[in-house]
Specification:
The structure is a single chain. The chain has 186 residues and is an all-alpha fold. 66% of the residues lie in helices and 0% in strands. It has one domain (2-180): Arp2/3 complex 21 kDa subunit ARPC3 (Orthogonal Bundle). The protein is built from seven helices and no strands. InterPro entries: BioY (IPR003784).
Length: 186
């Protein structure tokens, strides 16, 4: 139990720390930041349930007003902004990413974690983000989807980085990759 709490807090802090990497602001209000890499790592390393919990803890702190988002933003208003759909999608993205890594046991962990990050950390996340942008910006889903095309190259790079980092952690400290834990801690 204490180990789960520690990992949840550690990965919530990792997402916050990745918010310190300077963001690149785009004209339509959704920044390019490193925090989505943290979302991917929550899933690939912690697994579905614990990864989702770490992201929910982070979002709770943001909702309470802590300036943990890229650029030092926080508060409930963040969820009503053009990037609000992405924020709401973060726990789902981490969960799906972790679920894939937990279930797909064959093959290279680097490949599995990278593909899981692309499906969960990009595909699922973009689905939420596009809907959120469509609502806030009053654009069609197609127009909103066109706006997020600029994110794809960087997010694919982050997914590959998540794959390599997950495999590196598994090699150095196999018990730390809870998504692959044989006893899958409760």
């Amino acid at each position: 139990m204490e180990k789960n709490v520690a990992y949840t807090a550690l990965f919530a802090a990792l997402i916050a720390a990745l918010g310190l990497v300077p963001k690149i602001s785009l004209s339509f209000g959704v920044p390019i930041s490193a925090q989505s890499l943290g979302i991917m790592l929550c899933g690939t390393i912690l697994g579905a349930r614990r990864g989702g919990q770490a992201v929910l803890l982070f979002l709770l702190l943001v909702a309470l007003g802590m300036p943990l988002l890229s650029g030092g933003n926080g508060g409930l208003g963040s969820f009503m902004s053009a990037s609000g759909g992405f924020l709401i999608g973060w726990p789902f993205a981490a969960f799906v990413t972790g679920f894939i890594v937990e279930k797909w046991r064959k093959g290279s962990l680097t490949l599995v974690a990278s593909v899981a990050s692309i499906i969960g950390g990009i595909g699922v996340l973009y689905a939420f983000g596009i809907v959120g942008m469509s609502i806030v910006l009053k654009k069609s889903l197609l127009e909103s989807a066109a706006l997020v095309l600029v994110f794809i190259p960087g997010d694919i790079i982050k997914a590959v980085i998540a794959g390599f980092l997950t495999a590196s952690v598994a090699k150095a400290r196999p018990a730390s990759v809870l998504s692959r834990s044989s006893k899958n801690m409760a």
